[in-house]
Amino acid sequence: MTFTWTDLITLDLGKLNEAVTEWKTAAEELAKLHGVVRDGLVKKSEAARWEGVNATVTRDFVRSAAKEVADLQREAASIHLVLADTHAELTQIQKQAKALAEEARQGDPSHLPDPDMGLLVSDAGGGKVRVEPSMCDVKGPSRRTQDMVRWYAETLTALVSHAAEVDAAATRALRASHGADPYNAGHAEYTSLDQDQLPRAMKLAALGKEAKPAQQAELRRLWQSLSPDARARLWTAHKDDLLAAGLFNPSVKQVAADRGSGRHGAEDPGWRDWSTRTKMQLLVFGADGGDLNDASRHMKHYLDDTGTPMKLPVDKMLTDNAGFQGHVDRRHLQNSEAAWREEALAEFERNGGRPVAMPVETANADYSFSEADPNWYYAVGSARSNVTGVVTVVPDADGKPVVGLDYQVNVWDRYNWDEGKGVHIGKFQIPDGEMGRQHKVGLAQEFDMAGSSSVKHYELGSGGPAPAPDDPGRAGERSDPGRHARDGEGEIDR
User: Fold this and answer.
1) 49 or 473: whose pLDDT is higher?
2) Are 396 and 419 in contact (CB under 8 A)?
């Protein structure tokens, strides 16, 4: 049976919690009984001074009874721990699903310049979640609303898949704990779902770049489910494979900041629109020869009218613009690293001083490039960014914790020219609104831009600065032999 959205939000976790309590009590009582049998019957039987067939049979029976009680206790303890881990996992997933569904339903009336309308969430069957606007937009299709619909649908569907995978892992673990023989207890012992999920994660990670998108998505969900101890083992064994699988893909909303210019090709172009297009083509040529390579490339792609996503060279953005690098350091790293370090050290202590790994992610934060950097001002304007990564704690030679952070910077935006956006470069000047109209009349098309930096590492609490971005080399410059081949290249990892 397929696990559905309805199954997830109506799941009675109270009954599951009752089962956790009952099995905990059963394991504790069996532990007491085993103590009585072991310290009472078995010791007395072994110490008794009697010989013969009856003595041999009785001793064997007492030993067998003691073993069965011990087996029953181990089985009950295993079932209790599996159920407890399952309850914790499903509680967290259900709570997140309900919160996101309510957030989608309410929308954001305070968002400017236009409020975010509420969205309807329903069961689409087959483990999928349907999200749609609660009302028609009198202004026409809003790109921001479309992005919201997509993000909520994908995120909520992923939560359904995650719950289904936890449920399946629990089923396998319970079957293995109980075994197939109702008269013979004591089979596989579990202390958590890690014993089922970690081997699966190791197998998926070993596929490396050969893993299919669905397998990569499952691997990322397993990463979230694993304990800090199991994550550390997976990270140590398959760091590069995990990164190739998109482990650091941001989970926060990647949506357009505004509604955009409207429906593509909704109107017929006039002579003024063709004149604007010619000016923009001249701008592309002029900017390409004047150190505005990224601005030129993005405008060219806009005029190419394909609408396909483009990858942002984030290392280059950070290298080119010290203000943006400072924004990332202050807003994403310095604001978070103390809390990350404290939480990771607490996990390290709880794990008995053994290595742990903890996923981290910061919230969205906007950054606006100024006209002092015309290349990125016209290429991107304002963009949203965040940091994703993993904090690890490992013992040094003396057993003292070393706290490290591996992270990447993620940036995204939508390339558009809304009302109020014009351009003035040298002798070229195009008034507000005219370039955005190119989208409306079908001579150009807005597109998504997103990218991530190289993965960097540094020790939290060392007092040193964050590492500098990788040298972007000639990426995007006129002397870059591959730049034209990459124009419009996109599969943007979301």
Assistant:
1) 473
2) no
Distance CA 428, CA 248 (A): 41
Strand partners, 459: 404
Measured CA to CA, the distance from residue 416 to residue 430 in angstroms comes to 14
Neighbours of 334 (CB within 10 A): 12
Residue located via tokens 């494979």 = 241
Quick check: 160 and 131 in contact, CB under 8 A? Answer: no
Per-residue pLDDT tens digits for 153-184: 999 999 999 999 999 999 999 988 877 666 66
Beta bridge partners of 123: 129
Which residues have CB under 8 Å from 264's CB, separation 6+? 307, 439, 440, 442, 445, 446
Task: Say how many CA atoms lie within 13 Å of 316 toward its Cβ.
Answer: 18
Pair type for strands 456-459 and 365-368 = unpaired
- 188 confidence band (pLDDT: 50, 70, 90): confident
| Tokens found for residue 260 | 């955009």
pLDDT score, position 49: 52
Specify whether the CB–CB gap between 214 and 246 falls below 8 A.
Answer: no
Question: Under a CB-based contact definition with an 8 Å cutoff, are residues 127 and 4 in contact?
Answer: yes
